[in-house]
Give the backbone structure.
Amino acid sequence: MNRFMKATGVALAASMVLGLAACGSDNDSDKNGESSATEKTSATETAGSTETKALGYTFGEDQTFHSDEPVSYSMMFSDNEGYPYKEDWRLWSAIKEKTNVSFDLTVTARTEYENQKTLLVNSGDAPYIIPKTYDESPFVAGGQIVPISDYVQYMPNYQKQVKEWGMEEDLKAKLKDDGKYYVLPGLWEVAGGGYSYIIRKDVFEKAGVDVKANEGNWTYEDFYEAMKKVKDFTGAKYVMSDRFKGESTLNIAAVEYGVTGGWGLSNGLVFDQDQKKFNFADTTEDFKNYVTYFNKLYKEGILDPESFTQEDDAALAKFYKGDTFVINGNYQNLADMMAKMQVADADLYMIVQPGGPKGQLQIEASRLENGVMISQNALKDLGEEKFIQMLRFVDWLWYSEEGHTLSLWGVEGETYSKDAEGNIKLNADITYNGLNPTAEKKLNVDYGFGGGVFAYGGSAKLKLSKMSDGEKDYNDRILSLRQPRKVAPPIMGSADDSEEMNLISKPLMDFVKTMTLKFITGQADIGKEWDTYVKQAEANGSTRYTDMANEIFEKTKSKLGY
């Protein structure tokens, strides 16, 4: 253990166990969140600024990070095919102009990013900075990832957001059995609207469905009745042909049925907030009702059978041509789709997600988004002081208001301007997220701004800044018409516990996923084969897995405030 860890490790581990106090407390810290007991320089604090002559760089809360000498940090980069990487993006030069920092990038196609990340981390060859991490759990036991909660006191902008936005409870979801967390998640001041159904509002209304009057209270059964009216009115072969191979639709519906599915399949567990225990939801009557619902859509020709196998473009083509009238997506998808419709006067509308047996619930319960892992290679190669310098750069880019604005909107006077109230206005010749839809230049494609590696997290005002009036309306409807949900606690098992649970979970959830589609598509008869399915899930370890989760929760619940 190095000198820094000897000096601070015990105190920080204790603070994390007591509810992430290191993130939100000013005790024994200066204005910038710096521990005077462990700082090795002669830096002094003056009126919110940091005198950093001894450090060789400037940093601080609401201050621009800038290194006196040029610095380069290695980083993984997820290359999105929608806005492929360019070496000459203005993004790179803008970051360097502000900070004197550049990147040594490992550019990997988005579709291969997770596999490449796993390969590099497990081999010990990972770059210093590893963004776009949705689940850090598989990397913790190997010891190649820094327990970043031991260092957040060196990140003033991060701490400011945690404290001012009340993120302590949210961050508990990232804790591991040692009371630490291993990823810096994107932090949002407010939750987003998420994915829902994009419909042809004009067709629904011609079929006799008053969408705006009904969406506040309708359930999935009501949505079925509405789609049935559309099918009868249009005579279409199918009303809904889904994209994402059904993963998003199964995910958002699962929330309202109290089960897991699609992108949110995970381990099949749902936490009962009243009984304070986990249940394996995907063998319950709730799950039976869930797959029965989609089987009904399938059997009655409302849901296209190809929804679970086709690529996105195939589903979109059917929607664009007017062959179908419902598809899943987010608001950015809607903005892109509007310009590609091949039906004159088509009126696209994103509905509030239908409710279900568990209520009218908001889908997006967390204010955390994918985040940044830091490789142990950074600490090993840079040493303590240079490592902390890198963290202060990360803190500025991913957690300061200035960094957020740069990553999302670019350079003031070049890609955007501000009005008298400080609101951001994208240049008229640039389009992004449905803004200026006819403009020839694209903020992400041509400039590199607004991409998923950097541009996430931020204030409510920043979130609103990238929304069209339609998206603002959608988010307002979500907040006013749907009830927030509590986030489930993490399962803080030891490395051995986690390994055993992973060995159970993988084949178990593969079986659940396979049977979900078989039930929906009628390859398996729900009425005749349900009991066999439940018994097979138990044979695959559903009960053992649930028992282990609850045993671990009982041991660790005091750390989580239960």
